[in-house]
Amino acid sequence: MVHRDNSAPGLFARNLIRMALLFASTLALASCGSEGEKAEEFPPRAIKYMKIGEVADSASRTLAGVVKAGTRSNVAFETAGRIVDLKKTVGDIVAEGELLAALDPEPFELKVSEATFTLNQAKATLKDAQQKHFQQEQLWQKKVTTRTAYDTAVSNLSNAEGQVGIAESQLELRQRDLKKTKLIAPFPGRIAEKKIEIYEEVSAGQPIFVVQTDDENEVEVVIPENLIDRISVGDTVSVAFPPLGGLEIDAKITEISPVAGEANAFPVTVRLSKSPPDVRPGMSAEVTLRFDTEATGKAFSVPLSALKPDVQSKAATVFVYDEADGVVRMRPVQVVGIQGNTPQIVGGVKAGEIIATAGVGHMYDGMKVRLLDQEKPF
What we know:
The protein has helices spanning 8-39, 106-141, 147-179; strands spanning 45-47, 49-51, 59-68, 72-76, 81-86, 93-94, 99-103, 182-184, 189-194, 201-202, 207-212, 218-224, 236-241, 247-256, 265-272, 284-291, 300-301, 308-310, 315-322, 327-339, 342-346, 354-356, 367-371. The chain is α+β, with helices and mostly antiparallel strands. The protein has 4 domains: 46-56 and 296-371, conserved putative lor/sdh protein from methanococcus maripaludis s2 fold (Beta Barrel), CATH 2.40.420; 62-68 and 214-291, Efflux pump adaptor protein, beta barrel domain (Elongation Factor Tu (Ef-tu), domain 3, Beta Barrel); 76-104 and 181-212, CATH 2.40.50.100; 106-179, Orthogonal Bundle (Helix Hairpins). Strands 1, 17, 18, 19, 20, 21 and 23 form a 7-stranded mixed beta sheet that branches. Strand 14 and strand 15 form a beta hairpin. The protein starts with 7 loop residues before the first helix and ends in a 7-residue tail after the last strand.
């Protein structure tokens, strides 16, 4: 016969045991649930990405330059005199053969008149000498004159002919000097400088104007010594003009100095294929050089954030997205160049594949991921 204790203390004890068992059961269920959650995988991580594009093009380097006139010339009178006319000033456009300035012509006109008079005298003397020579020649043939008289007539004729020749040359020089009182533009262009004022006395060869071309502009740039062996005369470069909104014009390298200047850089001249009116000497320019490197034609450009470096091997790893399995796979690559701030890689990847571009330091081979479709490719 079972005795059931219905006293208050006995009932309390049974309830306490029953609550303990219920609590233990709850803990067991909670423990089972926690272990089940640990067994499950985390949801795929969303990643930023890019699609591998075309292979790297030629490398480029942009350097600062300055525009200069392709042809720049000091224009001067070839004779001394006083300026009485200045037709042009700084900035004026001139045509080839156009009058720029003039000297006082009066002194030169007087010298032309003097030379003309001298020539006329010489011609008169020559005419007289010719007549006397003819007479003496006739008499000599008839044996009615002396040898001395005949020789004198011949000598006087020769001297008279020489004097005429000298007088003609002097007249031509004086006429030439008179023409040189007009200063003519040697080629089409623009007045860059005016070095004299009207009514000033000038000497022969003293610069009056500086004329420069408008349509044959060049750009001077200095090339660092580590790049000078990569360029040659005739290479095509691109020239941009920041003051003109980044206007770009093709140009060719025309001169490479054999001697380095400041900072071991070499002066180089490039000639513009065309020169718009707004491009003026003294304007700043940017010259972009392009040359082949180890990366040209075979490397892919990727953002730095896509690379997980391997310090020991000096290589790197990228994570390629495997669309079939929804995971990323590790691929070893080599960095063979940098274009701007963008690494260029070879090996391990091919055009069209998708790689992760952020958070690669926390990725591992076979990691489940999904693409952030709303993100723009790099």
